[in-house]
Amino acid sequence: MSEELKNENTETSAETTSENDTPDFEEQLKQAKQDYLYLAADFENYKKNAIKERSELVKFGNERVLRDLLEVMDNMERALIAHTGEETKESLASGVEMIVSEMRGLLQKFGVKEVNCEGKAFDPNMHEALSSEPTDKVPNGHITQVFKKAYTYNDRLLRPAQVVVATEPKEKG
What we know:
The protein is an alpha+beta fold. The protein has three helices and six strands. It has helices spanning 2-60, 63-81, 86-109; strands spanning 112-115, 127-134, 143-148, 150-153, 156-159, 161-167. The strands form two sheets. It has a three-stranded antiparallel β-sheet with strand order 1-4-5. The protein has a three-stranded mixed β-sheet with strand order 2-6-3, with no helix packed on it. The protein is elongated and about 105 Å long.
């Protein structure tokens, strides 16, 4: 009989304990739900801000480059305004050379590099063949002329070169 009393006391104390823990458990659950809702709302705000920042970066990311290009544009406009008398032809040519030099420096500043192609083997990943030319000045499959230079941007091809590729000359027979 004492065992039955012990079992009843154990069951009663377990029921009492779970009844006393229920309000605390409900409070913890309520707090966890609030925390979850707060974190979910905070994450949604973060996503919206990240999308907005990325959009602005894409929209205004080139602003610095464009501002520097405007300086080159100003110099080009000054060169066009210059009078073209005999004495100014040399100064105009000198001014254009300075502008080209300034533009090269600006491109280098932003990670754009010119790729030297003339005389090198044709590479379809770097070059766009416009035509071919029979010649013995350079080996077959090498570049004889460059119409547009190739440029890389941070070691990635920005624009392929437009070139003429050498072929073996036909023998006169």
